[in-house]
Amino acid sequence: MTSKDIISLLPYADPFLFVDGLSIISGEGATGYYTFKEAEYFFKGHFKSHPITPGVILTECMAQIGVVCLGIYLLKDDITENFKPQIALTSSYVDFYLPVFPGETVTVISEKEVFRFNKLKCNVKLFNEKGELVCRGTISGMLKSKNHD
Amino acid sequence: MKNEELIAKMKAIVQPYVQDEGAFNELSEETTFVGDLKINSANLVDIILDVEDEFDIRIDNEEMEQMLSVKAAMAIVNSKIAT
């Protein structure tokens, strides 16, 4: 399963797709990247004449790459024409350290902590282009697989 | 293990994940995790993992699906620690 296959299975689209590509994917974790374009809709209002990527959007980017892309990869053997993986966010705890401005590319690195009984819990970090840690946290989701719905 | 001892251990495991405090205060063997305590499916998995650690046992998918109430969870734990 390639990075392109995984992204095509994501249930998101513009303006709420925050994955440009994946550089590493395995049963143990995922690494991916996204560039926050100057034209992203939320920069208009967060903040007034002072655009900074909202923490909730950074969290979403971490969840899409770190939990949903990884979850799709983990369920790859179940995927058929009629079955696409579904993943629901169930918890997130994130600490933030640095701002992300329009035009910045971020890299998300996720490590699987637990994947049992369809719950996927990951330790996720987000870095800027300088390699500085922007935020990190623990994000979990429940995966709907074919065998256990 | 004595029933009271087991139920006390179960209560301690379940407490961090409970949404309905009232139902938790009246917890009995008949209490269900999802219906009564309003625990979500992800936290139900956390409870199973905590039960595994507490009693040093391994629970499989089939047993997990049966663990809907305190009573059912206690029965599974008892059958595992007895063997």
TrEMBL record, chain A:
Keywords: Lyase. GO terms for molecular function: lyase activity. It holds the Pfam family FabA. The keyword Lyase applies. It comes from the Bacteria. InterPro entries: FabA_FabZ, HotDog_dom_sf. SUPFAM superfamilies: Thioesterase/thiol ester dehydrase-isomerase (SSF54637). The keyword Lyase applies. This is Hydroxymyristoyl-ACP dehydratase. It comes from Gelidibacter salicanalis.
Automatic annotation (TrEMBL), chain B:
Residues 1-81 form the Carrier domain. Transmembrane segments: none annotated. InterPro entries: ACP-like_sf, PP-bd_ACP. PROSITE patterns: CARRIER (PS50075). This is Acyl carrier protein. It comes from Gelidibacter salicanalis.
